[in-house]
Amino acid sequence: MERRWSVEETVLVAAEPERVYRAVADVRSMGRWSPECRAVWVPRPPVAAGTRFVGLNRRGPWVWFTECRVTRADPGRCFEFRVTTFGMPVARWGYRFAAEDGGTRVTEYWEDLRTGRTGRAASLLGRLFTGTRPADRHLVNRAGMGTTLQRLRQALEG
Prior knowledge:
This protein has 158 residues and is an alpha+beta fold.
């Protein structure tokens, strides 16, 4: 199987873009939406561009931390952060919000940044910590995005 370096998933949520943005940008609530994220620690809330936070993640028996920094925080339009491990780039995660049909089209996206000089080491660490081969990470992330977006939709529409 050829390694995929990015994936995205989309859902329509019956809520205005600013409300959906606030839910996603409250990264301390990410454990409610994501099937891998269990908790997030933000040393200096509220979250804005440049804010750093740490995520605690789990999938099956594997548990790992992520070091993250918010790179875009544009209310109602986009929220994005970069993930590193031991100072090495791992991924870019983000959400785009677009008003549509009385609601918001939410697109979650992921880009694998484990390339270049540190890519091999970051890929190896990723496999050790998460139990997922780099070539399969996009499949795991796509499934997780579907779950995340459905949980987000249910919470905001419920």
